[in-house]
Structure formats: structure tokens, C-alpha cells
Design a protein that fits this description.
16 helices; binds nicotinamide-adenine-dinucleotide; 7-stranded mixed sheet; alpha/beta; about 475 residues; 5-stranded mixed sheet; Rossmann fold; about 45% helix
Length: about 475
């Protein structure tokens, strides 16, 4: 259609968003180009024996930036993944890590596979063989490149990866740090599975607390009572929905692969998840309206839309019909540059992916630190803190004559365990980064969006690293 904005590929979108922010920065052109460019792309084909014979799988590992090592980024198992997508995701990882002060370069990996078509032993064989390909070319290791879960993978795949890595690196004392998102029994950390969704919640909650921003978009301050639609009930979407519900929001719509449901009175997230497990679909959930395909659910009445499935979901095509005032990007790249332009014209607040879903890599960083230090967070201090706090309670009681209830006693004396520290570190990271980005956004009238402000902050942090190396005059 004449005048309609052309949709770019995912990688082109990331480059366009970067260029928009880079144009507002004062760093030298060659430095900005260095930060933008992708450092290494490894693509390979590997054969795996499946119940239906030998199948050739296509795999990638892209390391976008070596300005800090190791590089870090998830592994995606998806049927339509391609090199452009992996490059886009790797670049986003660089900016995301910089934004939340996680000292890694960005990377991403993928295997082109429809996981629903294969049994568990085949998925295990694919994961292990993929890991061997990475080992052969030095694209994995605690100090080189550290994968994590992404779309289509989870703790199970991470356990296979670390086991394969250790088979080839027996005696490597820090070997467990070659991958994060592992099960807790395999060197993982408590709180990692739900970290991305929890971070999404912290980011939304903080954004909703800014009274003047809420006024500008026509909402009242606070997350309580906000109507939320979530796309994708996987790792990110499920936990984001669950924590938003626990925080007082009302989940009114859920979109999944097989269709969508909408109920303005509210959907209980765990009941929907149970219904899906029992029936194989979220459709026909009692009291809710069905949508099949799920696309139109995103356009229903709500305050906050959380796309938490895949990229390119909000485009110039459907953006005009979206009613949400806040788009909270749980997924990577769910809004195209052209879609974003429409939403910004409508005055929406877009909480950009590179900030909002950074909770996963933040807690992955904590897991990596735990693996390198070989000790569970909280192990040394927990009992000591509890004893000190209990003594303090006794002293206050005898000085004041007041007796604490058992509940109060437990709340005050409790020493921090691993999960307490992880969640507290995550909350601190999300809130600090939010205000850093908001500050950049509010201080510069040329910065038209939260995303551009986030890119500017990331560019600044990466540029500083290069400048300190003295490479650029
Ligand atoms: P996942 O595989 O656990 O879940 C994705 C869900 O989306 C699945 O339930 C799938 O059925 C659903 N889905 C697929 N296509 C859909 C469609 N068209 N409409 C509605 N639902 C659809 O994946 P995940 O780990 O939750 O990742 C989701 C997104 O979040 C990805 O963009 C990923 O890159 C990003 N992300 C994930 C993490 C993490 O820690 N897992 C961290 C940061 C960003």
C-alpha cells in the first residue's frame, strides 16, 4: 500500500533501532560501527540418527561482540530459525548485558528443529551433538562463550550440554560454568527458571509506579487492577503472567500457539496452565471467549500487552488495532521498527525487550558466579545472620518489654538463602536499569522512546570499554 512502511528482517530491525540511537550519540563513527558489527558467525550441519533415519540438522552459534568475555546468550530450538534471526538475537544480547551491567559480550545459538516432532532421546542426541560441534570450534567454555535456555530449550537441555562439555573437559574445575540455566542439582541456581518472567514483572511494576508517565498514557499509577494480555505461556510468558497476577494485576487474555482466550473478569494463570495440560489446549477454558487463530486476542481491550512468544508479532499491520497503552516486551524483538512507529504515534509506552527480559541473563550471571566460586550463595552467612538477628530481637524485647509474635520473630531473624539473594539481586538490577534508562529518556528531548534510551545507555557502556582500551582515539 502506498505510504505503508516496509517491514524489515529481524536483524535489519535491530540494526535500524541501533542506528536511530547511534545518531544521537557523540562517539566516533568507526567506534559506533565496531559496536554494531557481528564478530563471529559459525553455521554448521550435523547428522543425527532419529527413529525415522538419519536427519541433517542446521545449527548456528553467533558471537556478536567480544568486547567482554565470555560471550553469553541462549540456544533456540525452533522450526523456522535462520541466520538472520540468530544474528539479531546475539546483537540484542550484547546491548542487554551492557544495559544491566552484566560483564559479558552477546551471543546466541540455534538449531533448526521442530521439537514437537521428535522424542526425548532424539532431542538429547541433537543437543549433545550440537554441543560437540561448539566444543570442536571453541564456541563454548566458561571463559569463552556460555549458552543458556531460550525458546524451545530449558534446564533439561542445559543439563545435557554441561554433561557433554564435562565429558570432553574432565578435571576442568570451572567446567560447570560452561552453560547456565541448569537444573539446581546439576550446578544451577535457585530462581533461574522463573527469573526472566520475574524480571518482566519487576520492570512493569516499576514503570507503573511512575505517576507522570502513567498520567501521560491515561492510566492510574500502580500495577494493581491493570488488565494484562499475555502472548505465549512458555517460560517467560507463564512466569510474567503469574507474578503480575500475584502483584495485583488482572490477566484478561492469553494467546498460545493453538489459539487464544479472553475474559474481562480475569483468568487464573495456574488454572489455565492446568486446563492446557489436561486438554492439550488453552481453548474452551470455562467462562472465556475463544479466538482461533490467536492473533486478535492481542487486539482486545487491556492496559498492558506482554508479547512473550516470538519476534515480529506487532507490526505496522496489527499495531493500529492494539488497544494496550503499555507494550511490555517479554520476548526478543516482538515489535518491528514499523510497528513501533505506529505505537509511538498512538502515545504508547514500550518497555523494550533488551531491558525488560534482562532478568534471565542477570540470574544466569549469578549462576556463572556461583559455579566459579563453587559455593551456594547464602551458605556462609545465613546461620550467622539468623543468630545475630535473634540476639537483636532479645535485646529489643528486654529493653522495651514488648514481646514479638512468632511471625514477626521469623520475619526479622530470617537469614538470606540463595533464592532470597538471587531475587533481591534481580530486583535491584531491574529497578536500577529502569531508572538509568528513564533518566536518559527524560533528559534528552530528541530521545523519543524507552527503547532508544536503552540503546543509548548500552552504547555508552560498551563505548567506554573500548575507549578505556585506547583503541579509538
Ligand atoms: P518457550 O519455548 O518456553 O515458550 C514460548 C511459548 O510461546 C510456547 O508456549 C509456544 O507454544 C508459544 N508460542 C509460539 N508461537 C506462538 C504464537 N504465534 N502465538 C502465541 N504463542 C506462541 O520460550 P521462552 O523461553 O519463554 O522464550 C520466549 C521469548 O522470550 C523468546 O523471544 C525468547 O528469546 C525470549 N527470552 C527468553 C528468555 C529465557 O530465559 N527463557 C530470556 C530472555 C528472552
Amino acid at each position: 500500500m502506498p505510504g505503508e512502511k516496509k517491514e524489515l528482517s529481524f536483524y535489519e530491525n535491530v540494526l535500524a533501532m541501533y542506528d536511530k540511537a547511534a545518531a544521537l550519540s557523540t562517539y566516533p563513527h568507526n567506534l559506533l560501527e565496531t559496536i554494531k558489527s557481528t564478530n563471529s558467525v559459525y553455521s554448521f550441519i550435523f547428522p543425527v540418527r532419529t527413529p525415522n533415519g538419519i536427519v541433517e540438522f542446521e545449527g548456528w552459534r553467533v558471537e556478536h561482540s567480544h568486547h567482554r568475555l565470555p560471550t553469553k546468550g541462549g540456544i533456540r530450538f525452533a522450526p523456522h530459525v535462520n541466520e538472520d534471526e540468530v544474528k539479531a538475537l546475539a546483537a540484542l544480547m550484547t546491548y542487554k548485558c551492557a544495559l544491566v551491567d552484566v560483564p559479558f559480550g552477546g551471543a546466541k545459538g540455534a538449531v533448526k528443529i521442530d521439537t514437537r516432532k521428535y522424542d526425548t532421546p532424539t532431542l538429547e542426541a541433537v543437543t549433545r551433538r550440537y554441543t560437540v560441534e561448539l566444543i570442536k570450534k571453541n564456541f563454548i567454555g566458561p571463559g569463552t562463550d556460555v549458552p543458556a535456555p531460550d525458546y524451545g530449550t530449558g534446564p533439561r537441555e542445559m543439563a545435557w550440554i554441561v554433561d557433554t562439555y564435562m565429558t570432553f573437559h574432565q578435571g576442568e574445575v570451572d567446567g560447570m560454568a560452561c552453560v547456565t540455566g541448569k537444573p539446581v542439582t546439576q550446578g544451577g541456581i535457585r530462581g533461574r527458571t522463573e527469573a526472566t518472567g520475574r524480571g518482566v514483572f519487576f520492570g512493569i511494576r516499576e514503570a507503573c509506579l511512575q505517576a507522570d508517565d502513567m498520567k501521560r498514557i491515561g492510566l492510574t499509577p500502580g500495577i494493581e487492577g491493570k488488565r494484562v494480555i499475555v502472548q505465549g505461556m512458555g517460560n517467560v510468558g507463564y512466569y510474567a503472567a503469574k507474578f503480575c497476577q500475584e502483584g495485583g494485576a488482572r490477566i484478561v487474555g492469553i494467546a498460545e500457539y493453538e489459539g487464544g482466550i479472553y475474559d474481562p473478569k480475569g483468568l487464573d494463570v495456574d488454572s489455565v496452565a492446568r486446563h492446557r495440560r489436561e486438554t492439550g489446549s488453552i481453548l474452551k477454558f470455562p467462562g472465556a471467549l475463544d479466538f482461533n487463530p490467536s492473533g486478535p486476542v492481542l487486539e482486545q481491550d487491556c492496559d498492558i500487552l506482554v508479547p512473550a512468544a516470538l519476534e515480529n508479532q506487532i507490526t505496522s499491520d496489527n499495531a493500529p488495532r492494539i488497544k494496550a497503552r503499555i507494550i511490555a516486551e517479554g520476548a526478543n524483538g516482538p515489535t518491528t521498527a514499523a510497528g513501533e512507529e505506529v505505537l509511538l504515534r498512538k502515545g504508547c509506552l514500550l518497555l523494550a525487550d533488551m531491558y525488560l527480559n534482562a532478568g534471565g541473563v542477570t540470574v544466569s550471571y549469578f549462576e556463572w558466579l556461583k559455579n566459579l566460586s563453587h559455593v551456594r550463595f547464602g551458605r556462609m552467612a545465613k546461620r550467622f545472620d539468623e543468630r545475630t538477628n535473634t540476639q537483636l530481637i532479645h535485646m529489643i524485647e528486654s529493653a522495651s518489654g514488648k514481646k514479638f509474635t512468632q511471625e514477626e520473630r521469623t520475619a526479622v531473624s530470617h537469614g538470606a538463602d540463595e533464592v532470597d539473594l538471587v531475587n533481591s539481586g534481580l530486583e535491584e538490577t531491574m529497578i536500577t536499569a529502569f531508572h538509568q534508562v528513564r533518566e536518559t529518556w527524560k533528559q534528552n528531548p530528541k530521545v523519543d522512546s524507552f527503547r532508544t534510551a536503552a540503546f543509548i545507555n548500552a552504547i555508552h557502556k560498551i563505548a567506554t570499554t573500548y575507549l578505556e582500551l585506547g583503541i579509538f582515539p
